Amino acid sequence: MSTGKAHLYRPRAERKAESDANRALINWDLLQSLAVKPHPNQNHVPHDDLPMGVGEVLQEALAAQHLLDLVGIPLGLYDDQTIDARTFLAVLEVQKLRERLDRIVSWHSRETGPGGMVDDYCTECRNTWPCDTRRMAEGTYTDPEESADV
Ligand SMILES: [Zn+2]
Fold first, then answer.
1. How far does the centroid of ligand 1 lie from the alpha carbon of residue 129, in Å?
2. How confident is the model at residue 4 (pLDDT cuts 50, 70, 90)?
3. For 40-82, what is each residue's pLDDT tens digit?
4. Contact indicator for 35, 57 with CB cutoff of 8 Å
5. Rounded to the nearest whole angstrom, what is the distance from the C-alpha of residue 146 to the centroid of ligand 1?
6. Ligand 1 centroid vs 82 CA: distance in angstroms?
7. Whether residues 144 and 75 fall in one domain
8. What is the pLDDT, as a whole number, of residue 1?
9. CA of 99 to the centre of ligand 1 (A)
10. Measured distance between the N- and C-terminal CA atoms of the chain, rounded to whole angstroms
């Protein structure tokens, strides 16, 4: 699992493929509905005489505040109400979660023996390696019942 930012600066073709995949995931209808919904942290009144692009940025800020609500970032009381401060808290939360998942992945590693021999079992839970816990932490687990339905 990559937690660094080196992945942000890959060749354009790779980024385009990733961008296409991400754009297919984004719920644009939800973003549009959130962009016009009032939010207690974002007090601005839409009007038509804003410089070009400013209205869009304000709408994106509204949507972002609502999205931060969805993932449980506190509204804040002071300067912690701002979109950048709340986003910072969301980034900290993502980093913490990635660290926890990385720790689980490292705990559920493949058993090794002397001379570089490997076994077919997990060192932590003794299930066949890679165990379900490791695959869940890596994001590669597929539920056998769900796969059968497809
Ligand atoms: Zn395991």
1. 7
2. low
3. 998 876 677 888 888 899 999 999 999 999 999 999 999 999 9
4. no
5. 21
6. 41
7. no
8. 42
9. 17
10. 27
CA distances from 60 to 43, 71, 126 (A): 13, 17, 48
- Domain-located, residue 6: no
Domain boundaries, position 93: 13-101
- Coil, strand or helix at 77: coil
Q: What is the pLDDT of the chain when averaged over all its residues?
A: 90
83 and 58 housed in the same domain: yes
- Pair 18, 33 in one domain: yes
DSSP 85-144: HHHHHHHHHHHHHHHHHHHHHHHSPEEE-GGG-EEEEETTT-SBSSPHHHHHHHT----H
